[in-house]
Amino acid sequence: MKPLSAGYYIKNNKGRAAIIIFMMFLTSFIFIGGNYVQSLWWYWEKAEDYSDKMVMVSCIPTDEEGRDFESFKQDVMADEKLTVLGRTGHGFGGKQWVSTLGFKMGAYTQVYNSAEDLKAAFDIYGIECDYSNLKDYSVVMSEAYAKNVGYKLGDVIDKAYTLDALIDDDSFMMFYIYEVEPEDFYRLNILSDEMSGEELYNYVENIRAGRKMDIDPRIRDEIESEMGVAKVIFFAALIVVSVMLAVTLNSVVTGQYIKRYYEFGVYRALGISKRKIKRKIAGEILLMDLIALTIGLGVNLGLEYLLNELVYLPKGQFLPYCSGIAILGVVVSNLMVILPMIYFKGRKMCKIDVTEF
């Protein structure tokens, strides 16, 4: 291995390199921190997917005798691209669940007028369910959600509703069946197996054409606006932690490079260019960083696996193994710690003159 290679210093100074690698390894825990933040969104992923396939429209008091609502209902029911399911105007709340971070959060609910209507919606959502016990006042929820709130099949909810079916899809939603006569339909669940998301909402909005009624906003937009602050807090904390690590690690590396003044002085005396010296320093630091991140990723994934299997999954919770915010957090933190070291150490070592010793 040549003296100017990135691995030469690490091979011949394992103890010193291990200290630097350990401190760089600490930045990898940003990864698990990002996954904890992302876990808040994990609970809503299915709700977002399902709500993208359904638009709920409500009759409003200012619509005299519900004329606008009735004419709109006739228009959407005649549209072959849409599946229209009438339902009661009553609202239903979901049971609060506890997130992986320990926060209590409310649930998204959908209400249907019959088991047949629920099945029509589930067919579009791609949900498999046992409909044999479903009836008026039945509730359907996922197994994970039931574990989280401590429910099991047959339990009575709010002294009136019965948990009659569990689905295996990790949605933290409650699906109610509440039967009323068609003349008491004051809301419509409008679904489509051809359109979803913004396209479906815009399609329904165009059919409304200014008639008086409410169209519920997309839950995806509401969740992002309410929970987006969690990402801001994460990155604010990340910057503070990264600065502290950068200062601490820079002190350790500076102490080790002071002991190498003679080495770099000899390099300069031999006529080795500044570019090659900077390349050597960058290579050493980046190689140690790569080792640290590789070990850190393995440790993080192993820790997350144990937490999920032993702690979270039995309680209907989950810690994602990888997420965009976790990867971005590690990259940002790593750059804040590594780049200043590469720049300042390379600059300093290029100024060493052997005649000063």
Protein described:
With 357 residues, the chain is an alpha+beta fold. Helices cover 55% and strands 13% of the residues. It contains twelve helices and eleven strands. The strands form three sheets. The protein has a five-stranded mixed beta sheet with strand order 5-9-6-8-7. It has a four-stranded antiparallel beta sheet with strand order 2-10-1-11, sandwiched between helices. A two-stranded antiparallel sheet has the order 3-4. Strand 7 and strand 8 form a beta hairpin. Helix 1 packs across helix 2 (14-25), helix 2 (14-25) crosses helix 11 (274-312) and helix 9 runs parallel beside helix 12. The longest helix is centred in the last third of the chain and has 40 residues, at 219-258. The mean pLDDT is 89.
Intertermini distance: 27 Å
Proportion of strand residues: 5-15%
Order of helices and strands: HHHHEHEEEEHEHEEEEHEHHHH
> Average pLDDT value?
89
Oligomer: single chain
Strand order of the largest sheet: 5-9-6-8-7
Helix amount: 40-55%
Structural class label:
alpha+beta
| Shape estimate | elongated
The main β sheet shows up as: 5 strands, mixed
Low-confidence stretches: none
Instruction: Tell me the radius of gyration.
Output: 30 Å
Q: How many β-strand runs?
A: 11
With helices defined by DSSP (H or I, 4 residues minimum), what is the helix count? 12
